[in-house]
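Narrative of activities, Objective 1.

The group set out to show that a structural description can be obtained from nothing but a protein's sequence at a throughput compatible with the screening campaign. Below is one input-output pair from the validation batch, recorded exactly as produced.
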Amino acid sequence: QVQLVESGGGLVQPGGSLRLSCAASGSIASFNAMGWYRQAPGKQRELVAAVTSGGTTNYADSVKGRFTISRDNAKNTVYLQMNSLKPEDTAVYYCNAYGFTREVWGQGTLVTVSS
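Output recorded for this entry:
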């Protein structure tokens, strides 16, 4: 089974930037899509950004223009560049690999935006 490991989370001030990485132990090209989800305290998990095997991207309205998802198939890694961070972005961010017959989740990385 493919394993996903997130990294890059931490504490950042409002207006700052972070780059999250999701490293897969296998080929991410074998999945239909890769995505980033987040769950803030007291809230439901939500899709932040996703990219399909064909390169199509989708973003939550709350992060459009600030976040960018990208993938490097050669490195089996997906990234989430987060700019102009707001306190509302504070959450545990999870990497997800979706396929028609299987789905894999990472353990999550905590992002805290606070002054």
